[in-house]
Specification:
Elements: E1 19-23, E2 26-29, E3 34-37, H1 40-43, H2 52-62, H3 75-88, E4 96-101, H4 104-118, E5 124-128, H5 137-142, H6 146-149, E6 159-162, H7 167-173, E7 179-185, H8 200-211, E8 214-218, E9 242-245, E10 256-261, H9 262-265, H10 281-297, H11 299-315, E11 320-326, E12 329-334, H12 339-348, E13 351-352, E14 354-357, E15 360-363, H13 371-387
Parallel strand pairs: 3-13, 5-6, 5-7, 7-8, 8-9
Antiparallel strand pairs: 1-2, 2-3, 4-10, 9-10, 11-12, 12-15, 14-15
């Protein structure tokens, strides 16, 4: 890298490291230094960096067909939709339909528009305080983080936020008959890996059924094996009306999806929604290879097994107050609000994690992480926590 000023818009803080290659759970910077990646591009490269099956799928598809637009069908799109539908059904066809897009925010935009179409006259979408659904205006309006919303007001109307894991507040918000959908994360990722109490999501599903509102579950960060099930809602035995997916779907290739029960999805008519690049052959080839490999390797079981080892080790580290989350999506609550200092020092020590909150570290390593890599990361993090002990 040269020392000239960056020509990128300043939407992110200046990057402290420039990564140039990766393999599995390892990253290498432009000086050749090795790092353990325990963030996975924020729960994206769940099969690890440069997975050979995904790399070969991309290379082969690039030589075959890159783009035809959604005016025409491709076999790839149909295959990936079928694979996703099976996983939503926990191994059996769930009977839904899929819209492909390019990101999690776009998947949630599709869900919001679908709710308006499927529940006409009931335009309100209820979401939760602390939630994160994306940075487009519609997804941002659903996001329950005022600090992210304030610079871009006024936002689109028709959204209400209620406290997470608070059923009475949700019932009050749904009391006027204007609510067409409830949009929730099964575990709030950007809020610091916040889990609701057992039974909450199931109770929300029941209230939605009683009110005739759609239950839309944002699985952008939690989906595709990361929590120890294919989707986090499956821990509660819930059957959502709409599920949004992205991040891990292409193992780094940009692709998102909105799945919906057939009777809900059929509220869309030709021309209601669309995308130029959504589900195009290159991204779909990556998604097919990713999902097939995840199924072959038993990704949820691997995440659950490695997650237990990681969780147990984290609980014994100095300065750790609690460990939240499931599988390999873990939030480490610190005794002091020093998460930023810890992530900075961890990077210097060769470990990639991040801090979604001042007192919380987030760990989301690839689902194929080995026991040795878990133990190495725990050793690095333990040393960092000792060196950064006390407030900062």
């Amino acid at each position: 890298m040269t020392d000239r000023p960056s020509r990128l818009m300043p939407t992110y803080a200046p990057a402290p490291v420039t990564f140039v290659r990766g393999r599995g759970c390892e990253l290498y910077d432009d000086t050749g230094r090795r790092y353990l990646d325990f963030l996975s591009g924020i729960a994206v490269v769940s099969l690890g960096h440069a997975h050979p099956a995904v790399a070969e799928a991309l290379a082969s598809q690039a030589r075959t067909l890159l783009h035809v637009s959604n005016l025409f069908r491709t076999t790839l799109g149909e295959e990936v939709a079928g694979l996703l539908d099976d996983l939503v059904g926990d191994g059996q066809p769930a009977g839904g339909l899929v819209f492909f897009c390019n990101s999690g925010a776009e998947a949630n935009e599709a869900a919001i528009k679908l709710a308006r179409r499927a529940r006409p006259g009931r335009p309100v979408v209820v979401s939760a305080v602390g939630s994160f659904h994306g940075r487009t205006l519609g997804a941002l309006a659903a996001t329950g983080q005022p600090e992210k919303q304030a610079p871009f007001a006024p936002l689109p109307g028709g959204f209400r936020q209620v406290p997470y894991d608070d059923l009475p507040s949700l019932e009050d918000a749904m009391g006027d008959g204007q609510v067409g959908a409830v949009l929730l994360e099964a575990i709030q990722g950007e809020a610091g890996v916040v889990e609701p109490r057992p039974g909450y999501l199931r109770a929300v599903a029941e209230r939605c059924r009683e009110a005739g509102a759609l239950l839309m579950v944002d699985e952008v960060q939690t989906g595709l094996g990361r929590t120890g099930r294919w989707f986090a809602f499956q821990h509660e035995g819930v059957e959502p009306d709409v599920v949004t997916v992205a991040k891990a779907l292409g193992n780094g290739a940009p692709i998102g999806a909105c799945w919906a029960r057939r009777e809900v999805a059929e509220a869309f008519e030709p021309g209601d929604h669309g995308t130029t690049f959504g589900g195009q052959p290159l991204a779909a080839a990556a998604a097919r290879a990713t999902l097939q490999t995840m199924v072959e390797l038993g990704a949820p079981e691997r995440a659950e097994r490695a997650g237990r080892r990681l969780r147990e080790g984290l609980r014994g580290l100095p300065g750790v107050a609690e460990v939240r989350g499931k599988g390999l999506l873990l939030g480490v609550g610190l005794e002091e609000p020093r998460a930023k200092a810890v992530t900075t020092e961890a990077l210097r020590a060769g470990l990639v994690v991040n801090a979604p909150r001042p007192d919380t570290l987030r760990l989301a390593p690839p689902l194929l992480v080995s026991e040795a890599e878990v133990d190495e990361a725990l050793g690095i993090l333990g040393g960092v926590l000792e060196r950064t002990g006390g407030g900062s």
